[in-house]
Amino acid sequence: MGIKNTLLFTLCACLLLANCRDGGKASAPAPPQAKATPFVTDSVLLEEHSPRGHCEVYIDYPVSGPSEAVAAVREFVKSTLFEAGGQSLDDNPEELARTYCRERLEAQQKTLERMGTNHVEASEAPEEGIELRVVCNTPLFVTYEVYRFSYITHGGHGEYSDYGVTFRLRDGHRFGDDIITTMDENLYRHILAGMREYFGVKSDAELQALCTADLKTMPLPTFPPYLVGGGVRYHYSIYDICPFEEGDPAITIPWEVARSYMTAAAREMTPPTNP
What we know:
Layout: H1 7-21, E1 40-50, E2 53-64, H2 67-81, H3 93-114, E3 127-137, E4 141-151, E5 159-168, E6 174-175, H4 185-199, H5 204-210, E7 226-228, E8 231-235, E9 250-254, H6 255-258, H7 264-267
Parallel strand pairs: 2-3
Antiparallel strand pairs: 1-2, 3-4, 4-5, 5-6, 7-8, 8-9
């Protein structure tokens, strides 16, 4: 994944959202008697430049929907953008984006000062950015993926993280480790199969050769799984199981497999099984 260019992430996120919304298999419909209030967002994209830095931010910010879910997601967005939480800031996505970039540009300036760097070419200036993007929006839940990158000096490869969070719309509950109840050999075989597909290899031996983690110990991602259109996604961070250059594998366990491993609360939001 290119750290300086978020277009690939944007394309993947758009494909995920299309998969979430298109077709009965990809969307979790509300019960027939329920009239679900749609979760609606307003999107903002902002790029800010200074003589010694660059910042970009994209936010899908909630503007209407179930009140508890809107409040929970707004708090999540602010706490993700700002270390201090940002709860006192207005619910204005443009202002949030500007404040985020202003803080990051100031931090970049201080970093260069600590490094003793008095001059930096524009092509070598620090770059930071974040995306908080809806990748699945159904009548029962909404899922965000967060992509954050930091490229402070161009002498290294930079850093990035990519993970997802699912919210239940009826009450704003944020899911974490309470999506999957347990991990066993059968479920992990499906994860290994997803890893082989991701890396384009045919055997576990080939897969192990690419990974730094011992795959026999069933390592789990740094961040909890989350719900997408096709099932439950395990998104491994860089260094979780493999070197930086191998990326951050994202494996989706299909509903028909994942359902039996899910908690009752998470299972309520899955598409109905075929008769």
